Each structure stands twice: as structure tokens, then as C-alpha cells.
Amino acid sequence: MKIRKAVEADVPNLLPLMRELAEFEKYTKDFLITEEILRQQGFRRSPPDFHCFVAEGNGELVGFLVYYFVPFTYRAKPNLIIKELYVAEPHRSKHVGELLMKAIAKEAARSGCGMIKWWVAKWNERGIKFYERLGAKIDADWLEFQISEPGFRQLATAPAQA
Predict the structure, then answer these.
(1) Helix or strand run (H / E) with residue 159
(2) CB–CB of 40/33 below 8 Å?
(3) In this predicted structure, what is the pLDDT of residue 160?
(4) What positions carry a catalytic annotation?
(5) Strand ordering across the sheet containing 2-5
(6) CB 3.0-4.6 Å disulfide test: which of 13, 156, 159, 160 passes with 61?
(7) Which residues partner with 61 through β-bridges?
(8) Segment 58-80, tens digit of pLDDT
(9) Model pLDDT for residues 10-59, shown as the tens digit of each residue
(10) What single string gives the DSSP state of each residue in 9-47?
(11) CA-CA distance, 60 to 25, in Å (whole number)?
């Protein structure tokens, strides 16, 4: 199994894995990623909106890890944020996810990061156990908040509360 940084030529093989993740996490109706979006945002912008490692076995992409950096935190070091980690079903329990996590740990160290952060669906017990086995801890002190696009558009135009 080879772990490497994704290149633009990987896009046609990366997109189907991203669709599989959308199915796994039950958001296919909201999945809007296209090959062109991946090319533009990941490989043609400088700096790119995201970075990606891929797992390649026998010439086939079998997993990926998408990440980005938050450049400044209270630690005066960047945080590395894992946005997506996915391994195709036939390749799970074969250490592919662990190899991707080792690659991202090396990337965080190389980049002088103070922390790696990510989110896991509460129902993804297998994923939670995997991350805990690697030494990750659930941060019980913080809650994730979200405002959807309709919500933030409404907020942007609403008068200020007195």
C-alpha cells in the first residue's frame, strides 16, 4: 500500500471515493462536488483550498484523507484539520486508515502544527474506536455549532437585535 499526496491526475478516481463517503455518511442529496471543483479548489488555486493524501494499492485508489490548515491559533501554531477520511469497504481493517493517519501526523509535524482536529459522526462507532485506538480523545469541552447557508444568509441581512 502506497500513501502519497494526491495529484490532479487522481481526480477522476478520487471523486467516486468521495461519492462513496457521501453515501456512507448519508448526505448524497447534498453532494455537489464535481471533477472541475476538485481540480480548481485542490490543484489550481494557490494556495489550494484543501490538500489530500491518497492510499493506492495495485494501481487503484482505495482511500483518501482531505485536510486543510487553520493558520493561527492561541498556540501560535497552525492546526491541521482533517475534513474527510475514507477507506473503501473492501480495504478496511487492512491498516489503510492507519497509514493515512500516520501520513497526516508526519505532515502536521513537518508543518509545525500544534494540533490535529476532526469530527466524527456519533453513529460511526467503528470510526470512533479506530481513532481512540490511535490515541485520539473526544473533546468534551467544546460543542460544534453550525449555521446552514439559508441561515447565514438570513443572519447577514437581518437587522441587529437591540
Answers:
(1) none
(2) no
(3) 86
(4) 131
(5) 2-5, 51-57, 60-70, 79-87, 115-117
(6) 13
(7) 56
(8) 999 999 999 999 987 788 999 99
(9) 999 999 999 999 999 999 999 999 999 999 999 999 999 999 999 999 99
(10) GGHHHHHHHHHHHHHHTT-GGG----HHHHIIIIIISSS
(11) 23
Return the C-alpha cell found at 35.
471533477
Segment holding 100, helix H or strand E: helix 96-110
Please give the backbone phi and psi of residue 3, each rounded to the nearest 5 degrees, phi first: -110, 130
Q: Which amino acid, one-letter code, is at 42? A: G
Q: Select from 1, 100, 97 the least CA-distant residue to 51.
A: 100
Does residue 140 surpass a pLDDT of 80? yes
CB-CB contact of 46 with 40 (8 Å):
no
The pTM (predicted TM-score) of the whole model is 0.91
- The cell numbers describing 142, all together, are 467544546
